[in-house]
Amino acid sequence: MKKVMIVDDEIGIRENIRNSVQWEKEGFHYCGDAPDGELALPLIEEWAPDILITDIKMPFMNGLELASIIRAQKPHIKIIIMSGHDEFSYAQEAIRLGVTEYCLKPVSATELLQILHEVSQKMDEEEQRLTSLTMTKEKLLADLCGGLIGTSDAIDSAKKLSLSLSAKFYTIVIMDIRPHDDSQNSELLLNKTIRILEEFCSVDVEFLSYIRSRTERVLLLKSSSENRIMAYLEQLRGQIRLDLEQQFNCSVVIGIGSHQERLQGIHVSYLEADEDKYITRLTQQNKASLREIHLDEKMNILLDRNRFLEFLKIGDLHLRDSFVQEFAAPLQSIDWNSSSYGVYLLNDLTLESFRIANQIFRMGADPDENIRSLQQMIRGITSWEACTRYLCDLLDQLWQRRAASSGKYSDVIDQVKAYVSGQYNNEQVSLKSISAHVRISPSHLSKIFSQETGQTITEYLTQVRIGKAKELLKTTSNKTFEIAFKVGYNDPHYFSNIFKKTTGFTPKEYRTRGAVVPDESSEDMRKEPMYE
Questions:
Q1: Average pLDDT per run of 10 along the chain, which is 532 residues long?
Q2: Rounded to whole angstroms, how far apart are CA atoms 510 and 396?
Q3: DSSP assignment, residue 101?
Q4: d(CA 453, CA 463)
Q5: Region class of 259: left (phi > 0), else alpha (psi between -120 and 50), else beta
Q6: What is Dmax (Cα atoms) for the chain?
Q7: What is the DSSP string of 313-346?
Q8: Rounded-to-integer distance, Cα 112 and Cα 108, Å
Q9: How far apart are CA 484 and CA 469, in angstroms?
Q10: How far, in Å, CA of 30 to CA of 127, rounded?
């Protein structure tokens, strides 16, 4: 709903315009008036109108002077000039100043409304053009990964960009590519690698990509076949990574997320890929250190890591102690006080166990925090007995996450919903404030909520706000801008746009139709995100 302000030195004209138009019914909000340009300026700052209707001939500061100042300071405001003087010089000056419309007094309510609707339409068209110009492939992909754009908007934006997003399966891959030679240009290297990535893609697997940072490229893999994606990912971790490292003299760390069947699942896959990349980098660094220690100390102790990981998946508590005793037996020969070899072996095992646990237990805690805590425990090991106790503790921690995951997530989801229910009318509510309330990092809260509910937190917040707005439209006589404020939107025009995109109706249409308007399903209510 666009805000309209009037500036005219004749109080009768101001009152006549104010009273002759049913502003809310016509889709406008009348925010007030002023008798001259000088008095209007501070009010314009306070009210922030979208459309300014001003007379030309006024004392102190006339309409053209006011228009000149507004054009310079607030070029987004559309200006309609009214004049009782049919003089070409006024029209010329108004055009030079970029005035949107120029009309002669007296102007009827019908004529004024026609002008207002034409100006409003121009504003909407400009906004659409600006959106299409600012939305790029890179921004669209980044918004999908960040959970900042709804399904319908993503599809519309992709269509405008001539991109195909439709697929049965989606997977996010994050590649961190760093040159060994500091003289190499990292961004140029990221662009060179695209050719090799495309060469290995089959006709059944496509990818879209964008550069996330100086050394990172994000790939959105899509395919009609989950098996095809898995085959490509296997090549990516193996042959493709080796080819890139050899050909470009660089190190490549790859993080891979889960397979998703919906566009909104891309956000979850992205968060998982980021976690996987973090663990992979730590694992590679640990293995490099392990190789150095192996050469220096000539250690030849090997652990059956796959056996431990299998026990992590299917083992249980009553077999834990006997399994750990047998599994850790080769480590009895290590002098834990003088050698670092055992520390690096346990670190490697811990990182791989954490990766597997993330995949199969859907852990929601911050991986950085958990891994650092475990690594600190490893550094404190001074005997074989302490080593076995650590391995038992590691299994216990991961099994507890497996057992408690559903209940824990349910509690967190309930906390989020309760907080949103009480704070939806606060415009400052965001993922950051909600995560602070439930004491979980924003990225992991976002992942948990998306996995458990099928929608992002911003989409849920919008759902609650629009649901409350629908209730107020049906049960009160509050004006649209009042309802917008009551449900957390300080910009009534933005609220109206969100309402229409979410329900298919403007607030005015929804109220007019009343009971005949079908109640939208929660699936429809999830489509429009609120950007944070």
A1: 91 89 89 92 92 88 88 89 68 70 82 90 78 78 87 85 91 92 79 82 85 92 91 89 89 90 89 86 72 56 82 85 92 84 85 77 57 83 92 86 60 87 88 84 78 80 92 89 90 84 86 57 40 32
A2: 55
A3: E
A4: 13
A5: beta
A6: 103
A7: HH--HHHHHHHHHHHTGGGGG--TTT-SHHHHHH
A8: 6
A9: 7
A10: 21
pLDDT at residue 173 in the model: 95
140 and 161 Cβ atoms separated by less than 8 Å: yes
Amino acid letter for position 20: S
Sign of CA dihedral 335, 339, 341, 345: positive
Question: How many Cα atoms occupy the beta-carbon half-sphere of 425 within 13 Å?
Answer: 9
CA–CA dist 324, 388 (Å, integer): 6
pLDDT of residue 379: 85
Nearest to 29 by CA among 479, 494, 495, 520: 479
pLDDT at residue 281, as a whole number: 83
d(CA 501, CA 483): 17
- CA torsion 496→499→505→509, rounded to 10°? -50
Beta strands in 155-298 (DSSP E): 169-179, 205-211, 216-223, 250-256
The confidence score (pLDDT) of residue 469 equals 93
pTM of the shown model: 0.52
Order across the sheet with 78-83: list the strands: 28-34, 2-7, 51-55, 78-83, 101-104
